[in-house]
Amino acid sequence: MTTEATPPPDATPPTDATPPVAKDGGGGGAGAGPRALARQRRLRSVLRFWRQYRTHRAGLLGLAALVLFALTALTAPLTVGSDVAGVTGAPGRPLESPSGEFPLGTDRFGRDLLGLLVWGSRVSLLVGLLAAVLSVAIGALVGITAGHFRGAYATVMMRITDWFLVMPTLVLAIALATVMSRSLGTIVLAIGVTSWPTTARLVRAQTLAVESRPYIERAKALGGGHWHIMSRHVLPNVMPLVLAQTTLMISSSILAEATLAFLGLGDPTVVSWGGLLQEAREAGAVSSGAWWYLVPPGVAIAVVALAFTLCGRAVESVLNPRLGVAR
Amino acid sequence: MTADAASAAASAPAGAPGGPARGPRARTGASYLRYGAGKVGGAAVSLLAVLLTSFFLFRLIPGDPVKYMTGGRQVSAEQLAAYRREFGLDLPLWEQFTDYCRKALTGDLGTSYQFRAPVIDKITEALPNTLLLTGTAFVLYTALGILLGTRSAWRHGGLGDRLNTGLALTLYSIPSFWLGLLLIIVFSVGMGPVPGLFPTGGMESGGEEGFAYVVDVAHHLVLPVVTLVAVDYGQTLLVTRSALLDEMGSDYLTTARAKGLRDDLVRRRHAVPNALLPTVTLVFINLGRTVAGVILVETVFSWPGLGGLFYQALSVPDLPLVQGLFFVFAAAVIIMNTLADLIYPLLDPRVGR
Amino acid sequence: MNTQDQHGRARPGPRGRRSRTLRFGTAALMLWAGLATPLGPAPQRAEAAEDKQVLTVAVAQSVDSLSPFLASRLVSTSIHRLTYEYLTNYDPKDARPIPGFATKWSPSADKLTWTYTIRSDSTWSDGKKATAEDAAWTFNKIMTDEGAAPANGSYVTNFRKVTAPSPTKLVIELKKPQATMAALDVPIVPKHIWEKVGDFSEFNNDKTFPIVGNGPFVLTGYKPDSYVRLKPNKDFWRGAPKFDELVFRYYKDGDAAVAALQKGEVSFVQGLTPAQAAALEKQKNIKVNDAPGRRFYALATNPGARTKDGERFGDGHESLLDEKVRHALFMAVDRETIIDKVFQGHAVKGEGYIPPRFPQYFWKPSAGQELAHDPAKAAQLLDEAGYRKNGDGKRVGKDGKPINYRVLCHATDPNDKAVGQYLTEWWGELGIGVTLNCLDNVSDPWLAGTYDLAFDGWSVNPDPDFVLSIHTCAALPTTPDAIGATDNFICDKKYDDLYAQQLAEYDPARRAEIVKRMESRLYDTGYMNVMAYPNAVEAYRTDQIKSIETMPSDAGNIYGQDGYWSWWSAVPAAAEESSGGSGSTGVVVGVVAGVVVLAGAGVFLAMRRRSTADDRE
């Protein structure tokens, strides 16, 4: 990968090797120095990162939107409460158009759609996040090990990766969701398991680049095992890439969640944005002109997906200015 | 899922040239043949792996096809066993699989449980419809993506670029099915001053002939194609743009400008053709993915293609049909990728082993 | 002007680009021409009259087969009703059996031989005469060839022998008396065509058109998931249909179908949601037909799945074996709310098993017998049955674990999911957990008995025999792997005795009396909680259809009737009102093309201006 062009923030190496010594207890008081140093260095690189990130207006916009959505989702139990999803106590008539009482109208059960939208953000964001984390975790694991071990293992892993890469993701995810029972876990799994190969390839390339550096040689010569090399040297160096990848992946996971829910493969008892869209369609909102049932969830999905994409691109371009994205 | 495709594509060309070395044209016909044979062989292995996956993955779908076929009739255990024998479902899985592969090689993908017709017939029935939709959309969004991407890169940082990439990213974040529904509401049902100009779904009104038929199909094609183009042109745009930006720092462009060539000519004659090379990969990957990703748009617009068929087949589960369709979807992507691999070194002398 | 100058200098650029765009355009057109033209072996039409009256019906369900021996989906059997004659038909007024292919029928004194007089004025669409021989051949084929049995095999299981002593006489000998002999819904096919068919299990009757039949319509074209086209049979003995063509057009999406109706692309749409019906009611030229349905919508209890020999299988919750528990669950369901909120008034509150649409068989519980909505009483019943609440407010089963019922629901039915949410909350208040298990295809857990409760629903025929038979012990499967005709494994001695009585009872009034007693018994067991009779909610364009026969004649439905009445009787509205002709399509396409070109030019110009502006920067 091209990330080599600029030294990643964490690239100044050998000090990284010391913390495990400190943990062993053998280093004692001497270990505190390097650890503090490392902490300072990290802090500095985070600050440097932030200073550069700040220059990306689109990235800031995306970040602001994300903070807003995250706050909405986290405070939802206080602002709307789980009662909004209850059908027996629904406050309105089915499919009321927006009014003072219901700013976004009501759904087919007479529930407040604004409340549902807020409540649904929890599931949509959670599923998006978990699926992305799962996907990136698998990708990073495969990428790092394939980059580290080489040989037959790497060949096999990369063959599998390439093969997953050409699989029609949506088709495979639909198939997986059909095979398993309808639940949030299924959706997370279906998305995570099908979308990791991109990350694996990127991470492997980065791993290869990192491992070709002289200090890895040195670490090996000093007796660093596979686990030590991978966790102490490679992982910190691929971490920025992994983070950027996660941000981008969340965006596509949220879209994928909405897609699967829309195709009726989600859990019907859980409120999510994609699920709301599917309910709207089932209730005939498109032809009966109930736009308030259809437009807000779609806009919410698009805005969150866009926000994550903007953030991801900004992070990517800070780490790798050569790509020149969003500049 | 689209974002994932874009990053995949964005990384692929970066990885493809295999190092910065702009070596001499050492490639000979023989080495290209060897390279090509390797790629084709890899594709064949992939196809076999797809066959394997589709066969075993879909066996996991809960649901006994034989019970579906008998449709609520009172059937004894013996009769059920007879049905299982007829469809070869009583054999050990491994034998079923080898049997399936053997037949697949001769173009026989089995018999659909729900339509009681050869799977291959059902697929060839729907395939042209899907190709018509995706092919049209593909040509348009590739053209649009390259055109706008070039413009964006050339004047990068300007207002036009920001609007351009901003719009592309926004459309790219919109769920395609949702956009389709909105288009139906506005342009098909009609909303406010906008009359319902386009049909709400399907591929033809039926009963038209000759030129009128072509016009009728084209009329039905507009909204689904617009939907696909809107959500898909973004990634072509972004990749073209970043490829061109990479290229723009090159010395030869400065030289060309220094020679006094007009800006416009430098762009058209030098920068764009070179920057388009990585886009080729993306273009082919896209075509394959579009075929597979068309399920949603086909569902929303009642387009009688492979996507709708797949969805129907999954709910039964109509195993032979599901397997056949999955194979077609995956094969589309694999074949297109291989084509990209084969064509790429012919276009770019730097690649080739 | 400066821009003008810039524009001038940039000339060569746009021209080059334009030609490239042109090349792209040409490529796209060629792609189209290549793909689009061979697609449609355009259906042959004798005369391409522009003012043809076409009745277009929106459908969503795919045709499973056009062979009457295989088809079981509603859309396919409806098409067979239109293209083939059945021995009898049903009166649109009261669903009484009336002559179809047979003009008269009567049983012998021992009730075991039925003789049908076949009409002599029916001809196949290829000119050959339709006779009793065709009917006998059809029945014999179903009886002897397993490959021809899938669709209608259940009608002939009790037949001993079918013969045609003369072209106008058909004789059916039975093994046991059977009261349903005037309700044999089996399409009669032309022997001279079908005897050439080899393997019936693989023949779908969809290769050569027109398909030879003798119904009111002739099937002239079919393209899967696109359309089914039918022409009127001018020689039909009851009189030819009034429309020049009947087309079933596919809209996989309900909203797309409704939108098509609003635009006049189709004349008729069925299966409307409450919201769609409300929106359409406000529109000009559209009539919404909200008719009592022939379906019941119920919650079926797993009474402990078992085979005919009493071998138990499946894993239904043991507490459901207790009638008190079943009654408690019954009473915790507020059917009024379901009608009001889920169906939004487009359904009738459920009572007995058979919908009020069939007044001769409709039964409702007496005041003392009724299990009315009463959550307090329900809680009390559960306490009495020994299922008390634990510290967490959950009711505990005999095994000491909190009770949690798995409710099987159809993922494709929005009503299941909606009612399921209400159940979760209602039973939750009783202290009973609910897990909604929504599947595309429920048949596997259903047949295996691995569920506790399930959403259930059947369309009831004018003759209720079938829906009654599915709750008899005889319908249970022979072994756990076999498939029985049973709906949900109910087996009740009292009910079975009554069933046998009604089947042998040839007097309609007395038979109806027994049927009502069966419904009463079924209600008391609490196995089937009939929550609603959903209405058939349909709409059609009054500027395309002037009149159309519903069934029953007053306040009945149109789609999926027991007969061909609706489409056969439909009268076209005045010609000048019809819309959606090919002429207007051309105009629309012209307009669209214009708009696209203009928009393209606009974008192009805008981009030029922007780029020149950038140049200046």
UniProtKB/TrEMBL annotation, chain A:
Chain spans, region Disordered: 1-36
Locate the transmembrane regions by residue number. Answer: 58-78, 123-144, 290-312
Task: Specify the protein's topology with respect to the membrane.
Answer: Multi-pass membrane protein
Q: Where in the cell is it found?
A: Cell membrane; Membrane
- One GO CC annotation: plasma membrane
ABC transmembrane type-1 domain boundaries: 121-312
Q: What processes in GO biological process is this protein linked to? A: transmembrane transport
Ranges of Low complexity composition bias in the record: 13-23
Q: Which domain of life is it from?
A: Bacteria
Q: Name one Pfam family in it.
A: BPD_transp_1
Bias regions of kind Pro residues — which residues? Answer: 1-12
Provide the alphabetized UniProt keywords. Membrane, Transmembrane, Transmembrane helix, Transport
* Family label: Belongs to the binding-protein-dependent transport system permease family.
Annotated protein name in UniProt = ABC transporter permease
From TrEMBL, chain B:
Kindly list the residue ranges recorded as spanning the membrane.
Answer: 40-61, 131-154, 166-190, 210-231, 275-301, 321-347
Q: Subcellular location, in the record's words?
A: Cell membrane
Please indicate if the UniProt record lists Repeat as a keyword: no
Question: Where is the major localization of this protein?
Answer: membrane
What residue spans carry the region label Disordered? Answer: 1-24
Q: Which GO terms describe its biological process?
A: transmembrane transport
- State the similarity comment: Belongs to the binding-protein-dependent transport system permease family.
- Protein name, UniProt field: ABC transporter permease
Protein source organism: Streptomyces phyllanthi
Q: What is the lineage of its organism?
A: Bacteria, Bacillati, Actinomycetota, Actinomycetes, Kitasatosporales
UniProtKB/TrEMBL annotation, chain C:
Entries under Pfam families matching the protein? SBP_bac_5
Q: Which Gene3D superfamilies match?
A: Dipeptide-binding Protein, Domain 3, Periplasmic binding protein-like II
Annotated GO biological process: peptide transport
Keyword match Ion transport: no
Record localization? Cell envelope
Q: Which UniProt keywords apply?
A: Membrane, Signal, Transmembrane, Transmembrane helix, Transport
- Tagged with keyword Zinc-finger: no
Entry's transmembrane regions? 587-607
Q: Name one GO cellular component term.
A: cell envelope
Q: What is this protein called?
A: ABC transporter substrate-binding protein
Species of the source: Streptomyces phyllanthi
